[in-house]
Amino acid sequence: MSSKMTQEGLHVAFIMDGNGRWANFRNKARYFGHRAGAEALRHIVEVAPHHKIHTLTAYAFSSDNWGRPQKEVSTLMKLFSSYLRSETRRLRENDVKLSFIGRRDRFSKSIVRSMEAAEQETYNGKLLHFRLATDYSAREAILHTAEKLKADPKINRDNFHYLLTQSNGTVVPDVDLLVRTGGEQRLSDFLLWECAYAELFFTDVMWPDFREEHLQEALNSYYSRERRFGRIPQNANTG
Ligand code: IPE
Ligand code: IPE
Ligand code: MG
Protein backbone atom coordinates (compact mmCIF):
# COMPACT_ATOMS: atom_id res chain seq x y z
CA MET A 1 0.00 0.00 0.00
CA SER A 2 1.30 3.45 -0.87
CA SER A 3 -0.39 5.48 1.87
CA LYS A 4 2.90 7.25 2.58
CA MET A 5 2.56 9.38 -0.54
CA THR A 6 -0.20 11.52 0.94
CA GLN A 7 1.46 12.33 4.25
CA GLU A 8 3.11 15.50 2.95
CA GLY A 9 1.72 18.38 0.98
CA LEU A 10 -1.75 19.81 0.76
CA HIS A 11 -5.03 18.19 -0.08
CA VAL A 12 -6.96 20.63 -2.24
CA ALA A 13 -10.47 19.85 -3.45
CA PHE A 14 -12.31 21.58 -6.30
CA ILE A 15 -16.00 21.91 -7.00
CA MET A 16 -15.64 22.64 -10.70
CA ASP A 17 -18.79 24.66 -11.20
CA GLY A 18 -19.91 27.11 -13.89
CA ASN A 19 -19.33 25.19 -17.14
CA GLY A 20 -22.91 25.63 -18.35
CA ARG A 21 -23.05 29.35 -17.62
CA TRP A 22 -19.63 29.88 -19.21
CA ALA A 23 -21.05 28.37 -22.42
CA ASN A 24 -24.33 30.30 -22.16
CA PHE A 25 -22.46 33.61 -21.92
CA ARG A 26 -20.89 32.70 -25.27
CA ASN A 27 -24.17 31.60 -26.86
CA LYS A 28 -22.90 28.07 -27.08
CA ALA A 29 -24.35 24.74 -26.00
CA ARG A 30 -23.49 23.61 -22.45
CA TYR A 31 -21.31 20.89 -23.94
CA PHE A 32 -18.70 23.49 -24.95
CA GLY A 33 -18.48 24.57 -21.34
CA HIS A 34 -17.88 21.00 -20.21
CA ARG A 35 -15.22 20.52 -22.87
CA ALA A 36 -13.45 23.73 -21.84
CA GLY A 37 -13.83 22.59 -18.21
CA ALA A 38 -11.98 19.37 -18.99
CA GLU A 39 -9.12 21.46 -20.43
CA ALA A 40 -9.01 23.60 -17.29
CA LEU A 41 -8.80 20.46 -15.15
CA ARG A 42 -5.93 19.12 -17.27
CA HIS A 43 -4.05 22.37 -16.69
CA ILE A 44 -4.68 22.49 -12.94
CA VAL A 45 -3.58 18.86 -12.48
CA GLU A 46 -0.37 19.68 -14.34
CA VAL A 47 0.53 22.71 -12.21
CA ALA A 48 -0.73 21.41 -8.84
CA PRO A 49 2.53 19.68 -7.81
CA HIS A 50 4.41 23.00 -8.23
CA HIS A 51 2.20 24.38 -5.45
CA LYS A 52 2.91 21.66 -2.87
CA ILE A 53 -0.40 19.97 -3.60
CA HIS A 54 -0.06 16.27 -3.03
CA THR A 55 -3.72 15.23 -3.18
CA LEU A 56 -6.22 16.84 -5.52
CA THR A 57 -9.87 15.81 -5.51
CA ALA A 58 -12.10 17.22 -8.24
CA TYR A 59 -15.89 16.97 -8.42
CA ALA A 60 -16.71 16.00 -12.00
CA PHE A 61 -20.19 14.49 -11.75
CA SER A 62 -22.47 14.31 -8.74
CA SER A 63 -25.01 11.57 -8.15
CA ASP A 64 -27.65 14.28 -8.42
CA ASN A 65 -26.35 15.26 -11.87
CA TRP A 66 -28.09 12.16 -13.30
CA GLY A 67 -31.22 14.31 -12.99
CA ARG A 68 -30.05 16.59 -15.84
CA PRO A 69 -31.52 16.26 -19.34
CA GLN A 70 -30.56 13.00 -21.03
CA LYS A 71 -28.71 14.85 -23.79
CA GLU A 72 -26.41 16.63 -21.32
CA VAL A 73 -25.76 13.41 -19.37
CA SER A 74 -24.84 11.51 -22.52
CA THR A 75 -22.47 14.23 -23.74
CA LEU A 76 -20.84 14.25 -20.30
CA MET A 77 -20.35 10.46 -20.54
CA LYS A 78 -18.72 10.83 -23.97
CA LEU A 79 -16.46 13.54 -22.66
CA PHE A 80 -15.52 11.37 -19.68
CA SER A 81 -14.61 8.48 -22.01
CA SER A 82 -12.46 10.65 -24.21
CA TYR A 83 -10.80 12.26 -21.16
CA LEU A 84 -9.85 8.80 -19.89
CA ARG A 85 -8.50 7.81 -23.28
CA SER A 86 -6.36 10.91 -23.69
CA GLU A 87 -5.23 11.43 -20.09
CA THR A 88 -4.22 8.08 -18.64
CA ARG A 89 -0.89 7.87 -20.41
CA ARG A 90 -0.02 11.49 -19.75
CA LEU A 91 -0.81 11.08 -16.04
CA ARG A 92 1.38 8.01 -15.79
CA GLU A 93 4.24 9.80 -17.54
CA ASN A 94 3.85 12.68 -15.10
CA ASP A 95 4.01 10.32 -12.09
CA VAL A 96 0.38 11.05 -11.13
CA LYS A 97 -1.81 8.44 -9.48
CA LEU A 98 -5.44 8.59 -10.62
CA SER A 99 -8.30 7.24 -8.50
CA PHE A 100 -12.04 7.49 -8.80
CA ILE A 101 -14.41 8.02 -5.93
CA GLY A 102 -18.13 7.43 -6.17
CA ARG A 103 -20.39 4.71 -7.52
CA ARG A 104 -19.40 2.77 -10.63
CA ASP A 105 -22.41 0.53 -11.16
CA ARG A 106 -24.38 3.12 -13.14
CA PHE A 107 -21.68 3.72 -15.75
CA SER A 108 -21.43 1.70 -18.95
CA LYS A 109 -19.20 -1.38 -18.88
CA SER A 110 -16.73 0.21 -21.26
CA ILE A 111 -16.36 3.31 -19.05
CA VAL A 112 -15.87 1.11 -15.96
CA ARG A 113 -13.19 -0.88 -17.79
CA SER A 114 -11.37 2.34 -18.73
CA MET A 115 -11.62 3.60 -15.13
CA GLU A 116 -10.13 0.38 -13.78
CA ALA A 117 -7.40 0.36 -16.40
CA ALA A 118 -6.52 3.99 -15.63
CA GLU A 119 -6.27 3.20 -11.91
CA GLN A 120 -4.06 0.20 -12.54
CA GLU A 121 -1.80 1.97 -14.98
CA THR A 122 -1.23 4.93 -12.67
CA TYR A 123 -1.14 2.95 -9.41
CA ASN A 124 2.49 3.78 -8.62
CA GLY A 125 2.26 7.53 -9.25
CA LYS A 126 4.09 9.40 -6.48
CA LEU A 127 4.04 13.07 -7.39
CA LEU A 128 0.31 13.70 -7.03
CA HIS A 129 -2.74 11.70 -6.04
CA PHE A 130 -5.49 12.92 -8.33
CA ARG A 131 -8.98 11.76 -7.35
CA LEU A 132 -11.88 12.32 -9.67
CA ALA A 133 -15.33 12.22 -8.05
CA THR A 134 -17.77 10.68 -10.52
CA ASP A 135 -21.33 9.64 -9.64
CA TYR A 136 -20.32 10.87 -6.22
CA SER A 137 -22.46 11.72 -3.18
CA ALA A 138 -20.76 12.32 0.17
CA ARG A 139 -23.84 11.20 2.07
CA GLU A 140 -23.95 7.96 0.06
CA ALA A 141 -20.24 7.39 0.71
CA ILE A 142 -20.69 7.91 4.45
CA LEU A 143 -23.72 5.60 4.54
CA HIS A 144 -21.84 2.96 2.61
CA THR A 145 -18.93 3.06 5.07
CA ALA A 146 -21.31 2.92 8.03
CA GLU A 147 -22.91 -0.19 6.47
CA LYS A 148 -19.52 -1.89 6.22
CA LEU A 149 -18.64 -1.09 9.81
CA LYS A 150 -21.96 -1.68 11.51
CA ALA A 151 -21.01 -5.12 12.80
CA ASP A 152 -17.59 -3.97 14.01
CA PRO A 153 -17.49 -3.33 17.76
CA LYS A 154 -14.24 -1.38 17.37
CA ILE A 155 -15.69 1.31 15.16
CA ASN A 156 -13.94 4.63 15.72
CA ARG A 157 -13.03 7.77 13.79
CA ASP A 158 -9.75 6.35 12.52
CA ASN A 159 -11.06 3.13 11.02
CA PHE A 160 -14.09 4.97 9.66
CA HIS A 161 -11.78 7.49 8.01
CA TYR A 162 -9.61 4.71 6.62
CA LEU A 163 -12.53 2.88 5.02
CA LEU A 164 -14.21 6.01 3.76
CA THR A 165 -11.21 7.66 2.16
CA GLN A 166 -8.90 4.97 0.94
CA SER A 167 -8.88 5.12 -2.83
CA ASN A 168 -6.89 2.88 -5.12
CA GLY A 169 -4.78 1.63 -2.19
CA THR A 170 -4.02 5.02 -0.68
CA VAL A 171 -5.53 6.54 2.45
CA VAL A 172 -6.29 10.20 1.92
CA PRO A 173 -5.86 12.97 4.48
CA ASP A 174 -8.56 15.51 5.31
CA VAL A 175 -9.08 18.33 2.84
CA ASP A 176 -6.97 21.41 3.65
CA LEU A 177 -8.54 23.76 1.13
CA LEU A 178 -11.82 23.49 -0.75
CA VAL A 179 -12.23 25.73 -3.80
CA ARG A 180 -15.59 26.25 -5.48
CA THR A 181 -15.76 28.18 -8.73
CA GLY A 182 -18.89 29.59 -10.40
CA GLY A 183 -20.05 31.91 -7.60
CA GLU A 184 -22.23 29.56 -5.55
CA GLN A 185 -21.32 29.12 -1.90
CA ARG A 186 -22.45 25.62 -1.03
CA LEU A 187 -21.03 22.10 -0.79
CA SER A 188 -23.54 20.23 -2.99
CA ASP A 189 -22.91 16.91 -1.19
CA PHE A 190 -19.12 16.90 -1.70
CA LEU A 191 -16.62 15.44 0.83
CA LEU A 192 -18.75 16.22 3.89
CA TRP A 193 -16.61 14.14 6.26
CA GLU A 194 -13.23 15.06 4.77
CA CYS A 195 -13.95 18.81 4.87
CA ALA A 196 -14.62 18.97 8.62
CA TYR A 197 -11.81 21.54 9.08
CA ALA A 198 -11.20 22.55 5.47
CA GLU A 199 -10.65 26.20 4.66
CA LEU A 200 -13.26 27.28 2.12
CA PHE A 201 -12.55 29.50 -0.89
CA PHE A 202 -15.34 30.65 -3.19
CA THR A 203 -14.70 32.50 -6.43
CA ASP A 204 -16.91 33.95 -9.15
CA VAL A 205 -14.50 32.68 -11.82
CA MET A 206 -16.25 30.04 -13.95
CA TRP A 207 -14.42 26.73 -13.97
CA PRO A 208 -13.43 26.82 -17.69
CA ASP A 209 -11.57 30.09 -16.96
CA PHE A 210 -9.80 28.77 -13.86
CA ARG A 211 -6.00 28.91 -14.28
CA GLU A 212 -2.83 28.75 -12.21
CA GLU A 213 -3.15 32.43 -11.20
CA HIS A 214 -6.58 31.70 -9.66
CA LEU A 215 -5.16 28.68 -7.88
CA GLN A 216 -2.39 30.91 -6.54
CA GLU A 217 -5.01 33.38 -5.28
CA ALA A 218 -6.86 30.58 -3.46
CA LEU A 219 -3.58 29.34 -1.93
CA ASN A 220 -2.58 32.86 -0.86
CA SER A 221 -5.89 33.13 0.94
CA TYR A 222 -5.34 29.70 2.52
CA TYR A 223 -1.86 30.63 3.80
CA SER A 224 -3.14 33.90 5.25
CA ARG A 225 -5.56 32.08 7.54
CA GLU A 226 -4.97 30.63 10.97
CA ARG A 227 -6.20 27.08 11.36
CA ARG A 228 -7.13 26.50 14.97
CA PHE A 229 -8.91 23.12 14.96
CA GLY A 230 -10.99 24.17 17.93
CA ARG A 231 -8.02 25.34 19.98
CA ILE A 232 -6.77 28.87 20.63
CA PRO A 233 -3.71 30.49 19.03
CA GLN A 234 -0.35 29.43 20.53
CA ASN A 235 0.51 32.98 21.57
CA ALA A 236 -2.98 33.78 22.86
CA ASN A 237 -3.65 35.23 26.27
CA THR A 238 -4.70 32.12 28.21
CA GLY A 239 -6.19 33.99 31.17
C1 IPE B 1 -20.27 21.91 -13.38
O1 IPE B 1 -20.78 22.89 -14.20
C2 IPE B 1 -20.07 20.61 -14.11
C3 IPE B 1 -21.05 19.57 -13.76
C4 IPE B 1 -21.91 19.65 -12.80
C5 IPE B 1 -21.03 18.36 -14.56
P1 IPE B 1 -22.34 23.07 -14.39
O2 IPE B 1 -22.79 22.21 -15.52
O3 IPE B 1 -23.07 22.85 -13.10
O4 IPE B 1 -22.41 24.59 -14.80
P2 IPE B 1 -23.48 25.67 -14.32
O5 IPE B 1 -23.47 25.69 -12.83
O6 IPE B 1 -24.81 25.23 -14.88
O7 IPE B 1 -23.00 26.95 -14.93
C1 IPE C 1 -21.85 20.39 -8.16
O1 IPE C 1 -22.33 21.34 -9.07
C2 IPE C 1 -21.40 19.16 -8.89
C3 IPE C 1 -20.21 19.33 -9.74
C4 IPE C 1 -19.50 20.43 -9.88
C5 IPE C 1 -19.80 18.17 -10.45
P1 IPE C 1 -23.89 21.47 -9.38
O2 IPE C 1 -24.01 22.57 -10.37
O3 IPE C 1 -24.47 20.16 -9.76
O4 IPE C 1 -24.47 21.89 -7.96
P2 IPE C 1 -25.77 22.70 -7.56
O5 IPE C 1 -26.94 22.03 -8.24
O6 IPE C 1 -25.59 24.10 -8.07
O7 IPE C 1 -25.82 22.65 -6.07
MG1 MG D 1 -23.57 24.08 -11.54
How does this structure look, described?
With 239 residues, the chain is an alpha/beta fold. It has a single domain (10-223), classed as Decaprenyl diphosphate synthase-like (Undecaprenyl pyrophosphate synthetase). Helix content is 40%, strand content 16%. The protein has helices at 19-25, 30-47, 70-93, 109-121, 138-149, 157-165, 212-223, and strands at 10-15, 53-62, 96-101, 128-136, 177-180, 199-202. Strand 3, helix 4 and strand 4 (128-136) form a beta-alpha-beta unit. It starts with 9 loop residues before the first strand and ends in a 16-residue tail after the last helix. The structure holds 3-methylbut-3-enyl trihydrogen diphosphate (2 copies) and magnesium ion. Residues 17, 182 line the site of magnesium ion. Magnesium ion is lined by residues 17, 182.
Task: Output the keywords.
Undecaprenyl pyrophosphate synthetase, single chain, 16% strand, 239 residues, binds 3-methylbut-3-enyl trihydrogen diphosphate, binds magnesium ion, alpha/beta
What is the rounded distance between the termini? 47 Å
**Mean pLDDT metric:** 95
Largest beta sheet: what is the strand line-up?
A: 3-4-2-1-5-6
Our Rg estimate from Cα atoms comes to 18 Å
The distinct bound ligands, ions and cofactors come out as: 3-methylbut-3-enyl trihydrogen diphosphate, magnesium ion
The CATH class label is Alpha Beta
Domain count: the total is 1
